[in-house]
Amino acid sequence: MLAAHPAVTRARELLDRDNTRKWTLDELARDVGLARGIPPATLFAREIGMTPHRHLNERRLHQARHLLTTTDLSVTAIGLACGYGSGQHFARVFRQLTGTTPREHRRAASPPPAGDAAQDQAAESRNGKWRAGSKTGTGW
């Protein structure tokens, strides 16, 4: 695999390090030393297969997924912490790129509630009130 253009490598480093910043293509081009007339989005897409904007959203979503599954912060707070301007914008981008909402992602990743059926069955079994195959626990 060929090494990416040095400006693209530097741009990825900047986007990854400061993914909450509201980057513009002009700022990114200037910060990585691209000469005027070299479109950073085109160069970036050619080198790594996505635009800087898409790369930035991917990094932000990676961080958001982590926060959704490891904290109890609100969806809005997570969106703002990850660089989105509002909770609504974050939820819209999250759904567009993942096919699920942030709340659905959090629910799917969280452990089952403490009173789930398996735990209830285990407790009833210990108390002699449950028999395998019995839905009501009165199968004795």
UniProtKB/TrEMBL annotation:
UniProt keyword Transcription present: yes
The HTH araC/xylS-type domain, residue ranges: 9-108
InterPro entries: AraC_XylS_family_regulators, Homeodomain-like_sf, HTH_AraC, HTH_AraC-typ_CS, Tscrpt_reg_AraC-type_HTH
Superkingdom of the organism of origin: Bacteria
Listed GO MF terms: DNA-binding transcription factor activity; sequence-specific DNA binding
Record keywords: DNA-binding, Transcription, Transcription regulation
Residue span of region Disordered: 96-140
The protein, known as: Helix-turn-helix domain-containing protein
Species of the source: Micromonospora inositola
